[in-house]
Design goal:
Elements lengths: L4 E6 L5 H11 L3 E6 L3 H7 L11 H8 L4 E4 L2 H7 L2 E4 L19 H13 L4 E5 L7 H9 L8 E5 L9 H6 L4 E5 L3 H14 L8 E5 H32 L3 H9 L20 H14 L3 H28 L8 E5 L14 H11 L3 E5 L4 H7 L7 E3 L3 H5 L4 E4 L11 H6 L6 E4 L6 H7 L2 E4 L9
Parallel strand pairs: 1-2, 1-4, 2-3, 4-5, 5-6, 7-8, 9-10, 9-12, 10-11, 12-13, 13-14
Helix pairs in contact: 1-3, 9-11, 9-12, 11-12, 12-13
The structure holds nicotinamide-adenine-dinucleotide and uridine-5'-diphosphate-glucuronic acid.
Length: about 450
């Protein structure tokens, strides 16, 4: 079959894989090629066990793979054949040199730009899918247009807003698709080609176009606003614990104001995930770069509150359990940074596990999907950590349970059975407010929710 266009995606990760699977599914007239430098990842994308867990992903990959969706390691051939190249490589926080701990590390990004320049034999549209500091497109264009063979590149910004655990739903029915371009004739022409791809399944009024710098910046700002809501409600959760107000009731009352809205107001042990912290740090770095110190401090506060919330959670455990955790066995229900994913990047559970070990506690980690990652993440923590998938077996003989991830599974366990298998007095610290606290108290647990009055038997 002759395809209308060849699409390439460089980077077969959490974004590249699902995004391209959705485009391939919705646009059978395009050939979609996904490449990565990691052969083992590509092997998994071509197998029955995909490299990431995401509800609904298996079905769409199966539908398109081998038809118009292909996973390979041949980056060079992919670049040569492509009309449109999405770049979806990782852009972690820099760990070295100027901007260490703050700025985005653009080395993978720049390598990709140079590889495109080296291999391309015909003109192409390059789409920034990764999250990048504002003005990166300019650097990209400068690298790409330094070639001498007359090949033309047009750079677009098309940030991704999917959330893990709901990626397929988000991709199928996005709140908006944002496409930024240069406002030149060639820029607008390239933009229209990308709009035409999304128009296969996204309503026209949800495809938003803008200038390229607004698009790059909007991605950082969207994540900063989302994280800010969580830090705001978490800051209120501490006040609730002091005043006997209930943070869920406060969030409901406040969120019913349509100007505020009800989503992303769940108080928790803190937000995790690969992007919120990294993108806010990136925003803070940009503000400082432009001399905007007050603005930088403001956004940095969102991260400070998040770190404080995790520490506060551990200190609450310590205080509640008679000021010593030494030798006590504590079970973490959940290690993933949120439910419905095996991803553990920046998970609050890792911070909590590390701090509990520092207090000489024994830690048992349980999670339905993230135990392999949990083993890797905790390998440098020197202490007693066990990994047990079955929550009943994990909680046996423990002094306390701490709920770290909002997996649906943890709402409906037989807590009476669990209570009877634990050391007494038994404690439960609900870092996600997902259990029935009255019922747990009736069973005999001492219950410590987030932002709600504690329920104790002594
Ligand atoms: P990831 O680490 O899961 O995937 C990135 C992939 O790129 C890796 O498989 C890596 O091997 C590959 N790669 C790196 N350099 C390469 C090169 N030179 N050639 C080929 N492949 C290369 O990262 P991710 O979570 O998919 O994130 C990618 C980007 O998307 C980041 O900028 C992130 O901020 C952004 N983003 C992520 C999410 C999310 O939910 N994870 C959502 C929206 C945006
Ligand atoms: C987030 C954004 O929601 C996506 O729009 C964005 O594309 C993505 O980052 C990204 O750029 O990587 P993600 O991190 O996958 O998506 O998941 P979220 O649902 O945003 O949750 C992030 C963290 O906040 C999780 O730890 C979650 O448990 C926590 N959270 C979320 C709360 O503590 N309370 C809430 O009310 C909501």
């Amino acid at each position: 079959m002759k395809f209308k266009k060849e699409i390439l995606c460089i980077g077969a990760g959490y974004v590249g894989g699902p995004t391209m699977a959705m485009i391939a599914c919705k646009c059978p007239q395009y050939r979609v090629n996904v490449v990565d430098i990691l052969p083992e990842k590509i092997t998994k994308w071509n197998s029955d066990t995909l490299p990431i867990y995401e509800p609904g992903l298996d079905e769409i990959v199966k539908k398109a793979r081998g038809r118009n969706l292909f996973f390979t390691t041949d980056i060079e051939a992919g670049i040569k054949a492509a009309d449109i190249i999405f770049v979806s490589v990782n852009t972690p926080t820099k760990t070295y040199g100027v901007g260490a701990g703050m700025a985005a590390d653009l080395q993978y990004w720049e390598k990709t730009a140079r590889q495109i320049l080296d291999c391309a034999e015909s003109s192409k549209i390059i789409v920034e899918k990764s999250t990048l500091p504002v003005k990166t497109a300019q650097a990209m264009e400068r690298i790409l247009n330094s070639g001498k063979n007359g090949v033309q590149f047009e750079v677009l910004s098309n940030p991704e807003f999917l959330a893990e655990g709901t990626a397929i739903k988000d991709l199928e029915n996005p709140d908006r698709v944002l496409i930024g371009s240069q406002q030149t004739e060639s820029g607008l022409k390239a933009r229209d080609q990308l709009v035409a791809i999304y128009a296969n399944w996204v309503a026209a009024d949800r495809i938003v176009t803008s200038n390229i710098w607004s698009s790059e910046l909007s991605k950082l700002v969207a994540n900063a606003f989302l994280a800010q809501r969580i830090s705001s409600i978490n800051a209120i959760s501490s006040l609730c614990e002091k005043t006997e107000a209930d943070v869920s009731e406060v969030a409901k009352a406040v969120g019913m104001d349509t100007r505020i809205g009800s989503r992303f107001l769940n108080a928790s042990v803190g937000f995790g995930g690969s992007c919120f912290k990294k993108d806010i740090l990136n925003l803070v770095y940009l503000c400082r770069h432009y001399g905007l110190e007050q603005e930088a401090d403001y956004w940095e506060g969102v991260i400070r509150i998040n770190e404080h919330q995790k520490e506060r959670f551990v200190l609450n455990m310590l205080t509640a359990m008679f000021n010593t955790l030494a030798g006590k066995k504590i079970c973490l229900f959940g290690f993933a940074f949120k439910a419905d994913t095996g991803d553990t990047r920046e998970t609050p559970a890792l911070t909590v596990a590390g701090r509990l070990v520092e207090e000489n506690a024994q830690v048992v980690i349980s999670d339905p999907k993230a135990l392999d990652n949990a083993r890797l993440d905790t390998r440098n923590i020197k202490g007693d950590i066990q990994f047990v998938e079955d929550p009943y077996a994990a909680a046996r003989d423990c002094h306390a349970i701490a709920i770290m991830t909002e997996w649906a599974l943890y709402r409906s366990l037989d807590y009476e059975k669990i209570f009877n298998s634990m050391q007494q007095p038994a404690f439960i610290f609900d870092g996600r407010n997902i259990t029935d606290h009255d019922k747990l108290f009736e069973i005999g647990f001492n219950v410590f929710p987030i932002g709600k009055p504690k329920k104790v038997h002594f």
